[in-house]
Amino acid sequence: MRTKKVVGFALMLMMLALSQSYAQKAPNFKLKAQDGKIVELAKLKGKVVAVNFWATWCGPCRKEIPGFMEVYRQYKDKGLEIVGVSLDQDGWEVVKPYVEQAKMNYPVVVGDGELAEAYGVPNAIPVTYIVDKKGNIAKKHVGFMSKEEFQKVVISLL
Length: 158
Hints:
Layout: H1 2-19, E1 24-25, E2 30-32, E3 38-40, E4 48-54, H2 59-75, E5 80-86, H3 92-102, E6 108-110, H4 113-119, E7 127-131, E8 136-142, H5 147-157
Parallel strand pairs: 4-5, 5-6
Antiparallel strand pairs: 1-8, 2-3, 4-7, 7-8
Helix pairs in contact: 2-5
């Protein structure tokens, strides 16, 4: 009899846990993009947003940007937004020339340690957070993210 009660209680706890949403809200930010426009995450609610922390000196970061650009071109009109958050300490002085040279087609902002900490960015980049239409972090990917993997996640959330 005692075993049935324990199993029943465990099942009830498991069902309760499964019914609750543990989605983490993506921390809001309001930063100036390379074109001078303000990018505010809260205003992108209703879209799938990739928040990609990167830097100009980071090889894997530079390697994934062309794939992100291609996926953005393909899905921008379907509700995808990408925000590249540069963590370059020299700021726009190094970021703007790189963005222009790479012909990055999505908004890029310059972030700081406070924003990286709010997101829980580890001591490694690139890190990409995929935010769903409700503003919750649906996926966190540390390291290089292939175009195919990025596209798969985007499609699943659009």
